[in-house]
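Follow-up to my earlier ticket, as requested here are the two runs.
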Amino acid sequence: MSIRFNREHRVKSEVEQLGRFVFPPFRSHIEKVTGRDASVASQDLVRDQRPKRLLFIEDDRFIADMYRLGLEAGGWAVDVAHDGESGLSQALADPPALILLDLLLPRMDGFEVLRRLRSNASTQDIPVLVVSNASGLGGREEEARKMGIVDWMVKANTTPATLASRVGRILAAD
C-alpha cells in the first residue's frame, strides 16, 4: 500500500500490487495422528468442530461480556440473556448444552428460573451451573443443589479461565 499526498494536502491512498502477496502456510494446532488412532481422532475432530452452545443468564452486562469472551475463546458458542424471563424463554425455545445462571436477576430470580427449567420436559436435564456473588443466601445453596445444579461458583472468586475450565469438565461428563 502506498499513500500519496496531493497539493491540497489531502490523503489519497491506493493499493499497488507489486507481485504476489503470499500468506505463510497454515499449520494446525492439532498434532498429526497416524495409524489406527487416525480414524478415531478424525471422528472426535468432526464431533468437536460444532461448538456446544451455552446460555448465560446474567444481568450485569460487563460481567456477562467478560465471561462470554472467555468461554468463546474456549470454543463454545455463548448466548446471553440479561434477565430471568428472557433467559427462561430462550432456554425453552432452543435448549442449550449448559446454562450458567445468576440468582439475583430482574423480572424473575434465578431460583424461579431453575424451578421452571426443572418442571419442563425439554429443559429438565440441562446442567445448570450457578455463577453468582450471592454465596450461600442463607441456606438457599442447598435448595439449589436439591433442584439439580451441577455446581455453584462465586463470581468474585471466578476468572474467565476458571469458568471455562469448569464448563469444560461439566460438558465432558455429558
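Run two:
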Amino acid sequence: MGDNEAGADCSAPDWCGIEWTRWFPFSMESTRTGAIPDTPGVYRIRVAGAANLMYIGRTERSLRNVFREIRQGTARMQMPWKDPYPAAPALWAWKDAKGFLYEFSAVPLEDSEIRRKTGLCYLLYRYRQEQRDSPSCNFGRFHRKYRSSSTEREGIAGGPLGPQDQKNPAGGPSASPLTPTGSPGDAGWMGLAWSPKRELKAHTTTAVPQAQGIFLLFDGGTGPLLAVRRSDNCSQALFALSKNPPAGEPMTYMFCCEAKPVAEHNLRERECDLVGNYIELHNEAPARQFAEE
C-alpha cells in the first residue's frame, strides 16, 4: 500500500507512495482554501516546518471543510469541544502550551469509508514504524498538563490543569511499536506471546484473564483473521461475543493480555500496529475489522 522504507520522511509530498497536497498553513486567508480538495479523504497536521506529525485523520466530509473547522477551533480563546473533531482539543492544548503554528496536507480518497479507515490505520502503522513514536494527538493522546473538553452536549469545558491536579494519563509516552514478524495465527506474531487458538464458546472464555489486552478473531478453525480487538477485560469481551457472534459465524480466537495495566492510548497503539501489519501483508484490512465501527 505504498513505500515501506524505514526512515521515510512523513512530511514529504510522496510519503507512503501517496500524492499529498502541499502544506497549507492555518494562518492562510479563508479565501485561499480552494486548492484543498472538496472531497472525503485522509489528512495530516504538523507544526509548521516540523519533521514529525501532530495528527493523521480521515473524513467522510469535505477535506476543505475539515481544514477550516479545525483551524477555527484551534484559534479560539477557549478549548473547542471534542465533537466533531476529537483532535481539535488536543491540538488547541499544544498550541496554548507551546505557541505552535500548524499546517495541513491531505489526499482525496473517495473509494469508500472502509478504504479510508484502512488507509488511516496503515498510515499510523507506518508512522510508528518509521518514527518509533505516535503523532501527539492520535489514539486519544493529549498534553499531560491539560484536561480535554467533552462533547458540546455534555458541556464540560477543558483547559489547563491546576498545580495540584493529577497529570493527564493520556499525556504519557507512546508505546514502542511492535516488531513486524510472523503472520496472524502464529504464536509469536508481531513479537507478542499469543495463546493457543480456541473455539469461541462460552466455556472456553473462562480460561481468559480478566485483564486488558488484545484478541484475534478467526473464521472457523483454519480460516483467515477476521478482526483485531482491544479490551479492558478480554474474558468479558470474548464471553459476550460467544453469546452473540457477529453474523452467527463459527469463530476461533487467540489472545494476549497485559501483565499489568497500561494507558488506554498504548492499548490502542498496539491494536493499530497489528491491523497495520495485516494491511501491509495483505493490502487490505481483516474482513470484519471495521464492520461494526
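The only thing I checked on run two: The two ends are 22 Å apart (CA to CA). Let me know what else you need.
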